[in-house]
Amino acid sequence: MKLRVHACLVLLFFLPACATTAPAPRGAGARTQRIANLQRAAALPWKDEGRCIVREASHAWPVVVERCFHALDHEKIRFRDPTGKCAIASAGAAAMGIGVCALVAPEIIVGAVIITGVVVVAAAIQDELDSPTSKGVHPGETEPGLQAKPAPHALLANKRRPQSEPSGQGWPPLTPPGPTERARAPDCIPRPVPHLGGDALHNTCADRVPQNAFPGSDVLVNGKNFDALQLRARVLWEVKTDNFATYTADLQDIVIDKQAVELKRERELARACGFDFRVGVRSPLHQSALLEVEPDLDITVMDWC
């Protein structure tokens, strides 16, 4: 009870009120808030595989933090109070006060949350983000284009990865695992950005990549806008939606030569940041033509597109 009071003191610094029994919100915005909370929590290390977060995610973020703070893996996370605002807000409180304060308002206290190791998205959180309900499909419905069996590479997501040396990165800690300093550089932190161009078919195919962490956005990594990111499997995607079979033979050769050069360059950008790279195409003919020129590319025919 004492810790709960202290947490409320922290939240009062940023919020007009603190209710220990706040009900989960209802209405059209409830699912959006839940998904936003799950995505925010996915960047943090959890000892319980994220089960507390999944249980409480429908509440406001400050309430989620208060109720699940105990489940954080405190060996992989540190809190700082560079401005002194948290010390004022949590006067007399234990370390929990500083931590809750920093997590509730990281945009106010820059550098207050430091992850000292690799973060793999907690299994329960990832499963919830991948669920049809979180993707906007209600029970009893089938998500368009995703009824096919899971892609084999998705199985890699179940493998836990060893902890690396502290990354030193602040919020949000989405730095991919990797042994090199390049893999820890700010340019290697995946950042959702608006889709380039206005090709609706291309954007739909990219958004429907299985386990896409940022549907509705491109992913900026190492200066390149990739079309999709499978965060747990650490795979960046480039999607090609050419109606390849309708091209003349000469045009097919021109397109393949150009795409092979581009895709090799994009693969190296992804690998430099510790990601695998996969290409999605719409037809086996396009796949075989690319593989004939560049057999080392990992190319998938998108049965969801």
What do these coordinates show?
The protein is α/β, with parallel strands linked by helices. It folds into two domains: 123 residues, no CATH class; 123 residues, no CATH class. 34% of the residues lie in helices and 11% in strands. Strands 6-7-8-9 form a four-stranded mixed sheet. It comes from Stigmatella aurantiaca. It holds the Pfam family DUF6310. Keywords: Signal. This is DUF6310 domain-containing protein.
Highlighted features:
single chain; 305 residues; alpha/beta; 2 domains; 4-stranded mixed beta sheet; 10 helices; elongated; disordered N terminus
Radius of gyration: 22 Å
Query: What does the oligomeric state look like here?
Result: single chain
Total helix count?
10
Number of domains: 2
Task: Give the class from helix and strand content and strand pairing.
Answer: alpha/beta
**Unreliable runs, pLDDT <50, ≥5 residues?**
1-22, 89-95, 137-184
Estimate percent helicity. Answer: 25-40%
Q: Tell me, briefly, the overall form.
A: elongated
**Biggest β-sheet strands, sense, barrel:** 4 strands, mixed
Sheet with most strands: strand arrangement? 6-7-8-9
- Tell me what portion of residues adopts beta-strand conformation: 5-15%
The tally of beta strands, per DSSP, is 9
For the termini, the CA-CA separation is 52 Å
Element-by-element helix/strand order: HHHHEHHEHEHEEEEHEHE
Mean pLDDT: 74
